[in-house]
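Posting this for the archive.
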Amino acid sequence: MIDICGAFLEYYRETGIYAERTAPWIDRLGFEHVKQILLDEAERAKLLSELEKAGKREEPWHQTIQDTELQQKLYTVGSGEQK
């Protein structure tokens, strides 16, 4: 069931129009068409693979956590001297 939900999300991402809600999207594509795509094992696997790729983004705090010099630069309050 979770695989179908993930495939649904990815198929919607790929075929939806910006700001289009899911109900009009299903009406536009046809419920039977969407159902056929989601229940096809090969299509579902492809969609899940694409969703996984889309979700693999660099964690924004990773570099800051690892780099103490960057932490000093970003988070050290100056001595109050004006330049």
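The mean pLDDT is 88. The CA atoms of residues 45 and 51 lie 10 Å apart.
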